[in-house]
Amino acid sequence: MISKTSHKKLFTKAPIVRLQGQPLLLFSEQYGTLLQALETKKVKIFSECRNGFCGACKTRIISGKVSYLSEPLAELKHDECLPCCCIPATDLELDLSAEGAAVVSFCQPKQINNTATTLTLQKEVFEN
Fold this sequence. Notes:
ubiquinone; single chain; 5-stranded mixed β-sheet; mainly beta
């Protein structure tokens, strides 16, 4: 039997991560941290975290919330996060450029059998 707590966890919506309004990804545990997810999608973000310079990846949050996997060592303002040690707690919009990143874009609805319409997603590289 599934308890109410585990049932709720099974069906939790994955947070959507956006860059200045552009959808980038659905965050899942497979990424590890927000920084790893951003790097996987080829987002240009300066990071010296692995070389011991904490705070280098500091990023402004436009909307949403993050949860920290470990306590950040750098001082942060209320609208900043350290992607190297956090994950999205809610849908999240960051003040980072989507230029060159592998983002999600929506295609025009397609007509199927002259009756039903569907909306498909297509991956593309966003270039200005």
